[in-house]
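Lecture notes, part 5. Sequence design as translation. It can be helpful to think of inverse folding as translation between two languages: the language of shapes and the language of residues. The source text, in structure tokens, appears below.
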């Protein structure tokens, strides 16, 4: 029984959902003008978390045949036959429906609708169409996975704010280089699965150049919260250090031909980067208000 539940837990891509929730919490606290009611915080966290997890489940179902071809993903529950597509579908629908109703009745209608759009964008538009249609799949489709800060912001404020879109922009510009670094590390698997990622369609040198470009774009966007007075000195110092690491790994990936796992290291650092950036936003905001 424990192994069955663990497989359902894996379907939800919990580490990715946790990172999304961290960015949503940043949006919530930056939007707050007073203490956030605990019931609103819980409802927003559960609703956004459940709908993100639901989108992840649908991604498992849609990609099950491709997942079975790749060493990185062939042991995923649906791809490995541990959970049937129908059982996963029922589970995903239940999670998504529950999350939507929690947001609709326990947070606000705007957040429920935006979260639904983001989930559909990832689970359907990206997974079904974009992923297999264009080498810019992760650039266009990355918007859906960049939405949680906006969702957290609207959960508290009930309205769209230009500052919330700035947080979305940071994740949006971060996503391509993050995904392409993984593709470079797993190049043969993506080639075997015939997924038109940029390294497969345009070659490794061109991809490395684009990783440097998107890293620089991410760095520029990461400085904007301080530039407009949205965040303070703690965030500025923290993000400068994080940016230095991001640029270092991008350049090492571009020019270092001796390290066989530099693409993997770049991918792993990008996760540290985004986590550290949003933790810095939260801590900086806490210090500013106290």
């Amino acid at each position: 029984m424990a192994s069955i539940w663990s497989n359902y837990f894996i379907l939800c891509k919990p580490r990715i959902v946790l990172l999304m929730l961290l960015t949503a919490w940043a949006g919530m606290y930056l939007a707050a003008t007073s203490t956030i009611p605990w019931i609103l915080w819980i409802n927003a966290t559960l609703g956004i978390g459940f709908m993100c997890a639901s989108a992840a489940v649908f991604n498992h179902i849609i990609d099950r045949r491709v997942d079975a071809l790749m060493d990185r993903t062939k042991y995923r529950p649906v791809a490995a036959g541990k959970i049937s597509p129908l059982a996963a579908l029922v589970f995903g629908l239940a999670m998504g429906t529950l999350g939507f109703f929690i947001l609709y009745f326990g947070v606000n209608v705007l957040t429920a609708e935006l979260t639904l759009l983001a989930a559909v964008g990832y689970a359907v538009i990206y997974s079904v169409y974009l992923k297999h249609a264009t080498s810019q799949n992760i650039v266009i489709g990355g918007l859906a996975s960049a939405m949680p800060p906006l969702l957290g912001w609207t959960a508290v404020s009930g309205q769209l704010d230009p500052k919330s879109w700035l947080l979305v922009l940071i994740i949006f510009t971060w996503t391509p280089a993050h995904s392409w670094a993984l593709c470079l590390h797993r190049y043969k698997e993506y080639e075997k699965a015939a997924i038109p990622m940029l390294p497969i369609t345009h070659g490794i040198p061109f991809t490395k150049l684009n990783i440097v470009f998107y890293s620089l774009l991410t760095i520029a966007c990461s400085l904007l919260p301080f530039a407009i007075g949205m965040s303070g000195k703690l965030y500025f110092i923290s993000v400068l250090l994080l940016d230095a690491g991001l640029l270092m790994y991008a350049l090492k990936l571009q020019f270092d031909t001796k390290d066989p796992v530099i693409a993997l290291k770049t991918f792993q650092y990008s996760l540290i980067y985004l986590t550290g950036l949003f933790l810095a936003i939260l801590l900086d905001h806490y210090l500013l208000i106290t």
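The translated text above is only one of many valid answers, since several sequences can fold into similar shapes. Residues 262-289 form the longest helix (28 residues).
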